[in-house]
């Protein structure tokens, strides 16, 4: 990822929920070959842990773009918007 994108992502504000709004089916993640969610997410929300054999989800960084849900080759990513007033804060104007 380019340095410019990293700098811009660092300016994004969040009102984090305590509950994750992203629910990958870990059994499907285990047999997924591409792990494309790791690459399509601009905010690096997903990370495959070889040691734990599971998909780690850093939902606090989610930009709510939905790219992960669209790209999931197994179509098994439970995705919903965070509860009202939670999640990414987009500034107006």
Average pLDDT score: 90
Q: How many β-strand runs? A: 6
Which residues sit in consecutive blocks of at least 5 with pLDDT less than 50?
none
H and E string: HEEHHEEHEE
The global form is globular
Helix proportion = 10-25%
Strand line-up of the largest beta sheet: 1-6
CATH class: Alpha Beta
From the helix content, strand content and strand pairing, which structural class follows?
alpha+beta
Oligomeric state of the chains present here: single chain
* Rg calc: 14 Å
Per DSSP, the total helix count is: 4
Cα distance, first to last residue? 27 Å
Biggest sheet record: 2 strands, antiparallel
CATH topology term = Alpha-Beta Plaits
Domain tally: 1
CATH architecture group name: 2-Layer Sandwich
Strand content: 15-25%
Give keywords.
4 helices; about 90 residues; two-stranded antiparallel sheet; about 25% helix; 6 strands; alpha+beta
Tell me what the structure shows.
The chain contains 4 helices and 6 strands. The protein is of the alpha+beta class. The chain has one domain (3-89): Alpha-Beta Plaits, CATH 3.30.70. The strands form 3 sheets. The chain has a two-stranded antiparallel sheet. The chain has a two-stranded antiparallel sheet with strand order 2-5. Strands 3-4 form a two-stranded antiparallel ribbon. The longest helix is centred in the first third of the chain and has 7 residues, at 3-9. The chain is globular and about 40 Å long. The model has no long low-confidence stretch (mean pLDDT 90).
């Amino acid at each position: 990822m380019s340095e410019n994108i990293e700098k811009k992502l660092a300016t994004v504000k969040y009102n984090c929920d305590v509950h994750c709004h992203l629910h990958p089916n870990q059994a499907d993640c285990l047999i997924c070959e591409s792990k494309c969610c790791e690459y399509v997410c601009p905010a690096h929300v997903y990370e495959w842990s070889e040691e734990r054999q599971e998909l780690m989800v850093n939902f606090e960084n989610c930009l709510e773009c939905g790219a992960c849900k669209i790209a999931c080759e197994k179509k098994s990513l439970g995705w919903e918007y965070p509860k009202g007033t939670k999640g990414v804060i987009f500034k107006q104007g």
